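call fold(seq) -> C-alpha cells
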Amino acid sequence: MRRLPLAVSFSLWLAACGGGATLTGGVYADGEARYRIGELGDGWDRIGVDQNDLAWHHDTLGAIVQVNATCDPFQDVPLTSLTGHLLIGFTDREWVSSDRVPMDGREALRSHIRAKLDGVPRELLLYVMKKDECTYDFALVTPPGGAFEEAARVFERFVGEFSTDVGAE
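ret:
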C-alpha cells in the first residue's frame, strides 16, 4: 500500500474541512474576515484575482469590481495612505473627489479618481474602511465616461449593502 506524504495528507484534510474562502448567500468568509456584500446584478461575472478576496468583470462596460479585507491588529494606517496603496501602478492621477462617508457604522474614505494604467485612461471609485482590526477596500475601475457612470450606480448600491454583522458562522 502506497502512503501519501504527511504534508500532502494534511493539505487534503484542510481542503476537505473547508479551509478555503467561501461566498455563500452574499456572505464572504476566509481565515481572516467575514462580511456581507451586495449583489452587482446581470452582466457581472465573478473572476479570480490573487490579490483580492473577490472580483467581478462586466464585459460590456469594460468594468472591474474588486473587494478585499486584510486583518492585522498592529496595522494603524490612515485611510488616505491605504487609498494611495490601491493606486500603485496608476499614473496621471486626477482627484475628482475624496470624501469621508459613513459605512457599516464607521468612517470610510470614498475617492473618485481619473488616472491612466499602462497609458490607458481609467476612472476609479474607491472605498476604504477600517473596522475591528481589519481594513476593507472596494474598487471600481472602468473606462472613463458613460461606462463609469453606469457602473458607479451599481457599485454604490453594492458597497452600501456591505456589513461585517453577518451572525454566527
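Residues 1-19 have pLDDT under 50 and may be disordered.
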